[in-house]
Structure prediction request, 312 residues.
Amino acid sequence: MALKIGVLMGGRSSEREVSLRTGAAINDALKTKGYDTIKIDVGFDIAEKIKAAGVNLAFLALHGRYGEDGAVQGMLEMLDIPYTGSGVLASALAMDKIASKKMLLFAGLPTPRFLAISKSTATAVGLKNICEQVLGEMDLPLVVKAPTQGSTIGISFVRQRSELAEAFTLAFKYDPVAMVEQFIEGIELTASVLGNEKPIALPLIEIVSATGVYDYNAKYTVGMSEHIIPPRISTESQEQIKGLATSTYKAIGCRGLARIDFILGNDGLPYILEINTMPGMTETSLFPDAARAAGIEFPDLIDRLVKMAREK
Prediction:
């Protein structure tokens, strides 16, 4: 049977626009490599669209809920269609920052201290009391995250006591549980990992945002962030972080590709922040930059991911 690849993109999450850009770039790269492709905007009728298009391999270009969280992966398993990237469990674990932090701690991997606060608890005891409880257990500055969102959606950096309640309110708009994490001052780095059974870490990237915060605008606006390769850290620290990246990849059970974000603290210790099983593939994205630094041009990277999907 001739291979026909459906590029699954768009979707229903708050990261829809980024996904459309990622999908378009991937589709162009696949065409360059001679593949027969079709772009499919993911909605409620996705299973019908896939069957009608005669797709026998799915290239996932989805970000966020319903695409990066194991939902689409489970549907494709039911349809017996191979797909790029991680499977159901790894996708779900990585998407939920609280679940993935628990896995990291179980595996003995370094990650900043955190607390999980449910919206129902905050409503029952009062947001003011929750804030006092958190500030009694953790020192400022803090980061409050909506744990199942990507692209820094629903995230707040809390440097003043008065900012914490508003940070919870924002996180609860997206998720029924908020994650409060200790903010670590240091150098922001990312490690792109590629492979199935024997993953390799690509060259590390140091991220410097024009605003000092690597938020949604910094990620997806040309000129708003600088990607420094190699990072301005010691060779020893680079190798340590690469090792932690591949250990994280294996602990979560990733396949194909993932990007693991780190902070190298001012104390000289690296901390794992989060795992992205479907990193962006736009013109400003980190994973393609890391691949190019390793001598892998974008169409070749996409081709490798197709071949890895067929290995499953």
Q: What stands out?
A: The two ends are 17 Å apart (CA to CA). The longest strand covers residues 186-195.
